[in-house]
Design brief:
The chain is of the alpha/beta class. The chain has nine helices and eight strands. Strands 1-2-4-3-5-6-7-8 form an eight-stranded mixed sheet, sandwiched between helices. The two termini are about 35 Å apart.
Amino acid sequence: MKRSLNVCLLLISFQLSYTSLSAQSVADSIRQLIGGERAYYETLGNIYPAERSVTVTETTISGVKGYWFDQHLLSKKHIIIYLHGGVYALGSISSYRAMVSHLAKRLSLPIVYIEYSLAPEHPYPVATNEILNVYRELRKKYPDCKFSIIGDSAGGGLAIQLVYNSLKSRLPVPTSLALISPWVDLKTENNSYVTKQSVDPILSKKMLHDHALLYNPTNSKTADPSELSFKTFPPVLLLVGTDEVLNDDSKNFYQVVKPIQKQAKLKEFDGQKHVWLVSTIESSASVEAMSDINEFVKSN
């Protein structure tokens, strides 16, 4: 409980530091602010220790840095690609090594964590192109493997974008997706951006809106997962907390996907905040979420 409270207090300061963010240009002050917040975001990876039994190996795939978790399990012919969150501007292996290591232990499958380029230095479509190229190269190198995607927050949006880009490129889509608190609506217009603000100490409509503009300064509709149109979609598991402003992002996307994918599933976790696995990996809600992900990706 104390650990979760400390995380919430730190994230409140993280949110407040963005209240004066200008989205029209990448000024020196913004660069400095984001640089400082990136350093802070990395400390989230120190909240609890990584799973010691999981091996982590740095790699480069299609020119993009990545990290294999338990690469020796490739013989299982099922690869998980992990796309991290961080409002498209934050996040590194330091932020996610611990959480992903516990996922790797629970799934007993190889996970490749992609360290895609970040905004505002690299706005849309840099990250989406990198992820597509990584996915294409992995499929070429491991043609006999299934590929599942796990994404949290902005990484959930990037996972949806990967499906769209794969269809456009005539690549086979991933076998399944498991999305944790995905950020889908870059317009930040869903009702929960307002109705859930009082219970969400981590994110705010303004913070998300400002970062959406930094990531997508030209307001391209193809950058916004909620604007993408699908005639087909792979099985997808949406996990979201009741106490987060992104609650409706999952609910609304589920309504879009369910008519075209019978294996789409939505699950709400009562009282949980944004990507609750970051703050504690041992809570019943985190253990349950990992179990749900394990069951879903292995059944599809």
